[in-house]
Amino acid sequence: DAGVTQSPTHLIKTRGQQVTLRCSPKSGHDTVSWYQQALGQGPQFIFQYYEEEERQRGNFPDRFSGHQFPNYSSELNVNALLLGDSALYLCASSPLLGRAYFGQGTRLTVV
Amino acid sequence: AQTVTQSQPEMSVQEAETVTLSCTYDTSESDYYLFWYKQPPSRQMILVIRQEAYKQQNATENRFSVNFQKAAKSFSLKISDSQLGDAAMYFCVLLVPRGYSGGGADGLTFGKGTHLIIQP
Fold first, then answer.
1. Is the alpha carbon torsion for B85, B25, A93, A33 positive or negative?
2. How do residues B58-102 score in pLDDT, each as one tens digit?
3. Does A97 score more than 70 pLDDT?
4. DSSP per residue, A56-107
5. Minimum Cα–Cα distance from B5: chain A residue
């Protein structure tokens, strides 16, 4: 049984560009959450998707958007990239009211 | 809004010794969950232990145990018989459910982490 998988593992983008990160949840999980972890910091909650809708959102600008597909996989999109968007982006999946399992993250570097 | 504070950026312990990591949190809700996650250099976030706020008994998982003081909003992690594989960043995490209508879990609030070093 595969756990939470994220792609790509590493990514380098130029300031002003757009990026899409992908997450496949653990089998049986219908809820996906995204987190941003800056270097040396704890993860910050970006948003959560359930039944293909954004259910809850943290304190992130509209440049951060997402999507959940019928198979529960999810994408995180970031527009107009800033240098400060450089971070590890973590995806977590969970079943209804269950514990969260994390992927290994996507390391995004904005230059 | 919820906050989680870890006041120890780094802790060091001799192998086989016991170490305690501190955490305080703040929420106005009475129903919540607390967790300790570890993140080794592989970046994989791994659940160490979980505590439900309504349970008075402290959670225990093998060498890991917590001291949950609800009135003081304190949630410390004790690691007994420390092993080299315990070296990692440890995060104290708070989950306040928004309610069961609509289903799904909610966003986790993380502390800034404590870097645990195990001295051989």
1. negative
2. 999 999 999 999 999 999 999 999 999 999 999 999 988 765 444
3. no
4. EE-S--TTEEEEE-TTS-EEEEE-S--GGG-EEEEEEEESTT---EE---EE
5. A42
**pLDDT (mean) for A54-83:** 95
Q: Which of 49-68 (A) contact B at CB < 8 A? A: 50-51, 55-56, 58
C-beta atoms of B91 and A43 within 8 A: yes
Q: What is the pLDDT of residues B7-37, one digit of tens each?
A: 999 999 999 999 999 999 999 888 889 999 9
CB A13 within 8 A of CB A19: yes
Helix (H, G, I), strand (E, B) or coil at B56: coil
